[in-house]
Each structure stands twice: as C-alpha cells, then as structure tokens.
Amino acid sequence: xxxxxxxxxxxxxxxxxxxxxxxxxxxxxxxxxxxxxxxxxxxxxxxxxxxxxxxxxxxxxxxxxxxxxxxxxxxxxxxxxxxxxxxxxxxxxxxxxxxxxxxxxxxxxxxxxxxxxxxxxxxxxxxxxxxxxxxxxxxxxxxxxxxxxxxx
Amino acid sequence: xxxxxxxxxxxxxxxxxxxxxxxxxxxxxxxxxxxxxxxxxxxxxxxxxxxxxxxxxxxxxxxxxxxxxxxxxxxxxxxxxxxxxxxxxxxxxxxxxxxxxxxxxxxxxxxxxxxxxxxxxxxxxxxxxxxxxxxxxxxxxxxxxxxxxxxx
DNA sequence: TCTAATTCCTAGTATTTTACTAGGATTTAT
DNA sequence: ATAAATCCTAGTAAAATACTAGGAATTAGA
Lengths: 152, 152
Prior knowledge:
The first copy, chain A, is mainly α and 152 residues long. Chain A has helices at residues 5-20, 28-35, 39-51, 76-84, 93-96, 104-125, 129-146, and strands spanning 55-58, 64-67.
C-alpha cells in the first residue's frame, strides 16, 4: 500500500511550480534540476497534471508551465488524484451500489474499506497547495536566520 | 496506492475466524471455501497472522486456527499491518528523524506524507474486530427476516 | 528566416511487486 | 497405520512501476 513516485514526485513538482512560478512560466528542466527528478519522467507526470487542468503549458522557446488556478484553490487531493488515478486504497464493488459482494461475510469488510477511503481523501482534500508554499517559505527563512552568510 | 490482496483476503479470513471459531479450531480449508480464496495462498496469509501473534495454529488432524486474543482486543490496524508490513503510504526518510531530505522544497511534502500516514493508521486502529463480527451478525439476521424460508 | 529552446506525444523496457502454484516435511487425533 | 491438518520453502506468470528514448510541433529571438 504505497503511494507511487508519480504522486510523490508530482506533488513536489507542483509545490516547486507554485513557489518559483509567478508571471513567467517554469520549464520542466528547471523543476527537474531543483527536485532532482529525471526530466523525461517528470514530463509525463506534468502531462497528467495538464490533462487534469491543474497546469497550463506554454510551448516554444521561453515556454514552460503555469498553475491554472491560484494555490488557494488547489488541494493536495486534486494533485494526487490527477497523478494516481484515485486515492482509494480499496476498490470494492460493494462500495459503489448497495449489493455487490457474494456472501454476507464477504461484505462486512467493505465498511473497513469505505472508512479507509474516506479518511485518505478527506485528509488530502483539506490541505491546500498554498499551505505548503507558505510552510516552505517559513522553513527557508528559518534556515537563513541560522546561517546568515550562506553557509551550506 | 492500493491495498493488496494480502490485506483484503487476510482481513476477511480474520473476520471469518472470529465468527466461526469458538472453542474449536477452524481449518484453512473451511475458511478458504467460505471466503472463496485459494487454500495455498490463504495459508501464507495466515502464516503472517500467526507470526504476528494474532492467531494460534493447532497441528494434526482436527487442527486449525484460533484467535490468540478476544476480538475486542484486536484492531483492524493490527491485522492489516501484520499482513502488509505497514500501512504508511509514504516512507520518507525525513519522517523518521527531523533532517533527512536534501533541499528545503524537497522536504515540505513530508508534512503531507505524515498526515496521510497518521490518518490511515488512526482510522484502522479505531476499528476492532468485534465491531465487524457484530455487524456481520446483524446483516445476516436482517437477511433471515427478509427471506424466512431459506430462499437464495 | 534560421536556430535554439521548449512542450507534446508515443513506444519500448528493465526492474520490482503481486498473486499465486506446487509439493514435501511434520504433527496429531482416531 | 492412516488421514487430516499445519508448517515451510521455492518457483513463476502476470501486472505494475519507473523509467529511457526519440521524434514532431511550436515559438521567441537573432
């Protein structure tokens, strides 16, 4: 039960984009360098984000990507679902309709799966991209105060 | 981000065991038949449960398995962790200690991973095996009332 | 208009994980 | 003795993951 690199790298890419992209678009190459992710692979992840309407791509020299919506209106859930397909650890036929499973005992477990699914989705939906950017800025500032002369 | 059949089948096996096993041990064959799971595969899952101390195996003819603890003292989390290893969707070095990740931006995502991990574990830990057995009995009784003559 | 920088698109592939299957050794009730 | 069961380990087919590779299309700027 693991979140794949799609979700892990992709969220970091979105945070990076929110942080370094203001007016000007941010290129895949620059995100890949900062985040130490393969350019080719990152490209595929960002393609998913684009198809989900979370980022806009600008082609040609000087192009790159921009957030489609302000970070306040993008939840971590939006991002991870775009990358992972969905965030339901268990896909059980019984969860959709009311019937589904074969026997009675087969079906009791579905209450567990339902709660797990709800818990994960609620958790990621209540975190917004802007929260992460804010936190990132805070952490960076703290570092500056500890090492004022740019010591690594 | 999926829970594997280990967790899915294994939880059903534990519910079955709690429901059909009182004094007498329950055999793998009977669980496998009721739950429609391969005997050989189920055996491996129950081995994990045994190694985690959740069930006791009784060898020889007439043998089978028994719960080690009463269903009130076994959480769904205990069961799923025994089967899946752990229930942390993200294993991030930064989550263990306080350092870990390379750069500042690499590390902000860890707050997300932490929350997801906590949310999943909290959710499964607050459900006990006895709750599921109770629910299962309730559902079965309801069926009886709807179909009093044993109609399928 | 040419060139370089960039996104866009698709196919392929090595590695890992999952979900089993198979079969023999050991133990125990009858 | 025999049959019923757990116990143990090795193997394996299929699926998913995590990439790599490379070319087509677009655009800014010289």
